[in-house]
Specification:
- The structure is a single chain.
- By secondary structure, this protein is of the alpha+beta class.
- It folds into 3 domains: about 140 residues, DNA methylase specificity domains (Adenine-n6-DNA-methyltransferase TaqI, Chain A, domain 2), CATH 3.90.220.20; about 130 residues, no CATH class; about 140 residues, Alpha-Beta Complex (Adenine-n6-DNA-methyltransferase TaqI, Chain A, domain 2).
- It is about 35% helix and about 20% strand.
- The strands form 9 sheets. A 4-stranded antiparallel β-sheet has the order 2-11-8-9, with helices on one face. The protein has a 4-stranded mixed β-sheet with strand order 6-3-10-7, with no helix packed on it. It has a 4-stranded antiparallel β-sheet with strand order 16-24-21-22.
- Helix 4 runs antiparallel to helix 9.
- It is globular, with a radius of gyration of 25 Å.
């Protein structure tokens, strides 16, 4: 149980200069790896590579950024057939297992779990320099609990299976999101929603009239309203509450990502400040968040039932007031019409932003009869999306709870299998069943056409 070893006895940092024996190579910088994955595989001309393009890698290596560990810029190099064509930045440590007593998958989970990253981040911030940075000299001092190899492999498999299922769910949701967008575009961009005969409206000769606000033709009888006349649109706090080491998250536009909310890098505020912000703009289940500065236009639909965050520089579409319309409004905020509208209302020369007034006055295309038909048609699609998101949240919480206890020997695999792993297996089984149902269900086959 007390078998701890320093990483210096188990791994090495490899810095072998690439041969540069080809005209083109795949260059990996710190920005090209994230949370275990390599994000690119395209070739660049060697003559145009940056000066820090130096190191070779091989399958089984772990790439780990020296800069700001909390940004989770790391990757596990696995099953790359042309790995000899990869060259990596000097800002990425190339970590290689150097011991027969250590399982590399087990090492990967140790290096990437919260406690390790938090420790390395603190060491990086204590460094004298222009930005937080670590070196292998820091990393190799870490002590890892080292059970026998068989136990390491079993622990790594449990954690890897959870990660794999979370990623599978993410893939399914990306496909569901694409299906929902296709259906929306077919009905509300191409206007080929079913007419009274069940035929595509516009393609079957449905009457179209020009709308000056949207600057395009829309079906006769449809309305264009200001969105604020349909639902309330608010923004978050204008203050900058004092940052705390624990408390409630203050989500700003920089914390809104295409993949969801980045809670890890959000500032924490006191309960008093959290209550104060919520008096102005309380986030509720069913609301939609919209980034107003920086990466303008990132959209997030709030499905959490327990909300422990407040917002700043984020528009809050109070769709919780009209829950049945939330998915239509969500798609509208990501739509062709919204993209065209934003081009004309985004301000700022150095830091681009969109004002609350512009978001409140956004022209909103509406035909309640058709929208309600869309809601009915897409209901099962959104239910699956929401169920998978909730399941992934549960799987993530389970993994994050299990991981530190398994990695430091607090809980043995046998003990965990009696409760937590059993729970994980049930969730994995449920997810597999969902995957099978997705495969059995026909996909949306509408073809998108060019926009007028």
């Amino acid at each position: 149980m007390n078998n701890y070893e320093k990483l210096s006895e188990l791994i090495k940092s490899v810095s072998i200069t690439h041969k540069f024996d080809k005209e083109e190579l795949v260059f990996l910088n710190t920005s090209d790896v994230s949370e275990g994955k390599i994000l690119i595989n395209h070739y660049s001309k060697v003559s145009e590579l940056k000066g820090q393009a130096k190191k070779t890698i091989k399958n089984g290596d772990i790439l780990y950024s020296e800069i700001r560990p909390k940004n989770r810029r790391y990757a596990y190099v696995r099953e790359i057939s042309n790995v000899e064509d990869y060259v990596v930045s000097t800002k990425l440590m190339v970590l290689r297992n150097n011991s027969k007593l250590l399982n590399t998958d087990y090492l990967y989970h140790f290096l990437t779990y919260e406690e390790t990253i938090n420790y390395l981040q603190k060491r990086a911030e204590n460094r004298i320099g222009s930005f937080p940075q670590i070196t292998f000299d820091v990393l190799k001092t870490l002590q890892i609990w080292l059970p026998v190899l068989k136990v390491q492999k079993s622990i790594a498999k449990v954690l890897s299976d959870l990660d794999a299922k979370i990623e599978l769910n993410n893939k399914i949701n990306r496909e569901l999101e694409a299906m929902a967008k296709t259906l929306y575009d077919y009905w509300f961009v191409q206007f080929d929603f079913p007419n009274v005969q069940g035929k595509p409206y516009k393609s079957s000769g449905g009457k179209m009239v020009y709308n000056a606000e949207l600057k395009r033709k829309i079906p006769e009888g449809w309305e264009v309203k200001k969105v604020n006349n349909f639902i309330e649109v608010k923004d978050g706090t204008h203050d900058s509450p004092k940052q705390k080491t624990s408390g409630f998250s203050l989500i700003t536009s920089k914390n809104l990502l295409e993949s969801g909310i980045d809670f890890e890098n959000a500032n924490l505020i006191s309960e008093e400040d959290y209550i104060k912000v919520n008096k102005r703009s309380q986030v509720e289940t069913g609301d939609i968040l919209f980034s107003m500065i920086g990466s303008i236009g990132v959209v997030y639909k709030v499905e959490e039932t327990e909300i422990k965050f407040a917002v700043k520089n984020v528009a809050l579409y109070k769709t919780s007031q009209k829950q049945e319309f939330k998915n239509y409004i969500y798609q509208y905020l990501k739509s062709y019409d919204m993209q065209r509208y934003m081009v004309n209302v985004i301000s700022g020369s150095i830091q681009k932003f969109i004002g609350l007034g512009s978001l409140r006055n956004m022209p909103f295309l509406l035909n309640e009869v058709t929208v309600r038909k869309f809601i009915t048609k897409s209901k099962s699609l959104y239910l699956k999306l929401d169920n998978i998101k909730r399941q992934n949240q549960q799987l993530t919480e389970l993994r994050d709870w299990l991981l530190p206890m398994l990695m430091n020997g607090q809980v043995t695999l046998r003990q965990a299998q009696g409760n937590a792993v059993k729970e994980a297996e049930e969730k994995l089984s449920s997810s597999a069943e969902l995957s099978r149902s997705m495969a059995a269900e026909p996909s949306v086959e509408y073809k998108t056409k060019g926009n007028e």
